[in-house]
# Entry
Amino acid sequence: MNIQSAISREIFVPRDEKLLVAIEVRRRAKRKGLSFRKKDYLTFLCLSVTTNSRPAQVFITKVKRYQGTRQFAKRSQWSVEQLRQVNGINPDKDTPEFDLVFDRNSDQWVASSAAEKCMFVQVLHHACQNYWEAKLGNPSSPGEQKIPGAPESKKSPGAPCQTNFVNCQKKLMGDACSVNMVIYRCKIFLNRMKNSMTANQGRLQREAAAVKPSRRSSPSPPAVKKMGNVMRRASQVLSERGERLVRADEKTSHFFHGAKQFAEAAQKLALQQI
# Structure
């Protein structure tokens, strides 16, 4: 079970909410008063919608998983009506940084990868559009239909403000089901696979370094022979891991180009059908 499925099952399903997307993040700027101790938890930003209300409420939830446990803990939650601005930082290229500005606070985040941030912003924009169109877009009765040539009515001071997306790439403001989502999901999967293999290789290197004999100790010949065998096996394992990592990099590049070609073909097909 992947992380998103586990978060959905533990946090959102019991609350009658559907999880749309979850990404791992860290703060880009340290808040005042926070200690400088090493973080012993992972932070996830989750976007969910209710399944038992119309229009469906949209929520952004901060979830944490502490070191040494596989369970997730819900920390903070905001509704889309509290979300004033989404700042994509750079409108010209994919970057992992983004800001979320709410009524009473703002957070500066860095996603695990640019692809995760782009997917989160695109799904969030689509969810916000659907919510505000359902809440404000349709008149409640035929008598409230707009008359051609009539002056537009101004919003009351208490009317809610819609979420403003700034410094976001234009491709992220389209449909959340577009071919961009296919590319982002492929990039996220391949990036996680590469990070997992790199972490395993680092763990094997640390284990091999731990079995090296100390210079101060003078082990007996059988112990030296045993350590030599362990070192040879560790070296062989590391070599095999290195070869697999190289092959994984080659497969990653192949999958990426394949996904890009698929996206281009799908886009051409969509344009032909217009």
